[in-house]
Design the sequence.
């Protein structure tokens, strides 16, 4: 079945550091890939997405590239801010819009 | 445009009881999905409703059931509650059944079973 494996946390970084959160997936079909973010006390919000191989999703300085050959969708940001502290979830969806999530990576950015 | 709203936000139930959780989908969205998020885990797909019909189900027992109404709002019912049912229950709505469609999530209902 479909599944997502995500880098374990928690991750603690200093402000302006470079961020990478690894994500790999297993899928029977050709999924779309997503990163969702959950800020403290809030629901899940879409951060970015990609729907086909070599697509790059980007938003708020975050980027991720759909790599079909390595079945990966790693999240990166060049310079994190305190306001980026949150839990990040990698996810895939199939044609039926049923989402499969990773376990989440908690990020804390310290000033 | 209102987002996805869920009620109640928190509740506590006793093992063996039944519970109903409610979700109002975002305006114009005809698809509603329910997810269970245990503490420290990612959301797990329970089932999906599309235009009032069940349209897919995850690996959850039949005591998890649901409904979707003509206005596309939805209910999740759980019978014979178990301690392991304690979790955050998330509702998500989407506008269409298509590749790459975003799901919009509510803030969830925190269920505690004692």
Sequence:
């Amino acid at each position: 079945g479909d599944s997502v494996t995500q880098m374990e946390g928690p991750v603690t970084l200093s402000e302006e550091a470079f961020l990478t959160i690894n994500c790999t997936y297993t899928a029977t079909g050709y999924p779309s890939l997503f990163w969702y973010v959950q800020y403290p006390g809030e629901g899940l919000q879409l951060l970015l997405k990609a729907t086909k191989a070599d697509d790059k999703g980007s938003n708020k300085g975050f980027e991720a590239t759909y790599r079909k050959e390595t079945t990966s969708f790693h999240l990166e940001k060049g310079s994190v801010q305190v306001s980026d502290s949150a839990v990040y979830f990698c996810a895939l969806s199939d044609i039926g819009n049923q989402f499969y999530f990773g376990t989440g990576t908690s990020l804390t950015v310290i000033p | 445009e209102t987002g996805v709203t869920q009620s109640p936000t928190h509740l506590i139930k006793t093992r063996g009881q039944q519970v109903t959780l409610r979700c109002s989908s975002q305006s114009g969205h005809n698809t509603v999905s329910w997810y269970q998020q245990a503490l420290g885990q990612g959301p797990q797909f329970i089932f999906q409703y599309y235009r009032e019909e069940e349209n897919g189900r995850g690996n959850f027992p039949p005591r998890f059931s649901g409904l979707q109404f003509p206005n596309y709002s939805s209910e999740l019912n759980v019978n014979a509650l178990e301690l392991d049912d304690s979790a955050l229950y998330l509702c998500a709505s989407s506008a269409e059944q298509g590749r790459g469609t975003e799901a919009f999530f509510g803030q969830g209902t925190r269920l505690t079973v004692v």
Notes: Chain A has a mean pLDDT of 94. Chain A touches chain B at residues 4, 6, 32, 34, 36, 42-46, 49, 51, 89, 91, 93, 95-104 (CB under 8 Å). The first strand of chain A starts at residue 3 and ends at 6. The CA atoms of residues 64 and 96 of chain A lie 23 Å apart.
